[in-house]
Specification:
One of its GO terms (biological process) is carbohydrate metabolic process. The protein is of the alpha/beta class. It has a single domain (about 1-275), classed as TIM Barrel (Alpha-Beta Barrel). The protein is about 35% helix and about 10% strand. The chain is built from ten helices and nine strands. It has helices spanning about 1-15, 80-85, 90-100, 110-115, 120-125, 155-170, 190-195, 215-225, 245-260, 265-275, and strands spanning about 55, 65-75, 105-110, 130-135, 180, 200-205, 205-210, 230-235, 265. Strands 2, 3, 4, 7, 8 and 9 form a six-stranded parallel beta sheet that branches. Strand 7 (about 205-210), helix 8 and strand 8 (about 230-235) form a beta-alpha-beta unit. Helix 3 (about 90-100) runs parallel beside helix 9 and helix 8 runs parallel beside helix 9. It is globular. The protein binds zinc ion. The site of zinc ion (ZN) has 8 residues, from loops.
Length: about 290
């Protein structure tokens, strides 16, 4: 898995290069709760000891064959000129394929991506097949030493997440979910503490697709198929420039997993199932994950 981690690392480092197709949003308008009267409040995990931000990695293993595909929409603050020069940090064909195949998915979107592609952000934010969640404002790391990404200072972390929610809202994502994916998947106790109080659940994954900068779609697809278990969360990207094989990977793994009896769900469904277990929400020891 080291090579996988490294390729993802490269993706994140160039992450500036990665424009994923994720989305972030607030439940209703406030991450902590006040969902609009008509909207169902999305499930979140209970905070950990000391009200530490809870971390979700995968759903229950024993409640049937469900799997959540997640797509990160990475974009850094300085990639605007590259986008203007024709580089594609979006991946409309991938989104189109997910729609054609009727695969529900969760998009972790940076605020910068929403600003760059507001029409797509709005479309995703209004499509019940998708849920849009938060991947920071411009893909800066929340720990030191995270694939060479620039870092957000501790006292700016909460503001960064809120700025992303604001950008999503402005772009037309009315109900971004109270889920946050750390850039690069890097977090520690300090980062979890910094985000406590805004009501987000940190969402990691248990299956690394390895799609970042991959050129062999079959190898990525095989890695996904080898890794998926009931309740799995798969991390992928929706940025053509940084993850050019992802649409083909989806075309391969979706029919195969369905043949195996898997049902595709959004992250919120897995979190809801997790909450429904007798043991309640998961509370994991903070650590630094490397990939994403
Ligand atoms: Zn990312």
């Amino acid at each position: 898995m080291i090579s996988v981690a490294r390729s993802v690392t490269a993706a994140c480092a160039l992450g500036a290069a990665l424009a994923a197709c994720g989305t972030a949003g607030t439940p209703g308008a406030k991450p902590a709760g006040s969902a609009s009267p008509s909207a169902t409040r999305p499930p979140v995990l209970a905070p950990g000891p000391g009200r530490l931000t809870p971390v979700f990695e995968h759903g229950p293993r024993t409640l049937g064959k469900t799997v959540a595909l997640t797509f990160d929409a990475d974009m850094t603050a300085d990639q605007g000129p590259r986008a203007a020069a024709g580089e594609h940090f979006d991946n409309p064909d991938l989104i189109g394929t997910l729609r054609t195949l009727k695969v529900p998915a969760t998009i972790f979107m940076t605020g910068r991506w929403a600003e760059q592609y507001p029409a797509q952000a709005r479309s995703l934010g209004h499509d019940p097949q998708f849920e849009v969640a938060n991947h920071s404002y411009s893909h800066y790391a929340f720990t030191d030493d995270c694939y060479g990404l620039p870092t957000v200072a501790e006292d700016r972390m909460k503001t960064d997440v809120e700025r992303a929610y604001a950008a999503l809202r402005k772009a037309g994502v009315p109900h971004a979910l109270p889920y946050f994916r750390f850039p690069g998947g890097c977090y520690d106790r300090q980062a979890l503490r910094a985000l406590s109080g805004i009501g987000v659940t940190a969402v990691q994954w248990d299956v690394v697709s390895g799609d970042a900068f991959a050129t062999d779609a079959d190898a990525v697809a095989q890695q996904v198929l080898d890794g998926v278990k009931p309740g799995s969360v798969v991390v992928m990207h929706c940025t053509r420039s940084a993850a050019p094989t992802t649409e083909q990977v989806v075309r391969t793994v979706v029919p195969e997993l369905r043949k195996q009896g898997y049902r595709f769900v959004k992250v919120s469904e897995l979190i809801g199932e997790t909450n429904g277990r007798p043991s309640g929400g998961r509370q994991e020891a903070p650590r630094t994950a490397r990939s994403g």
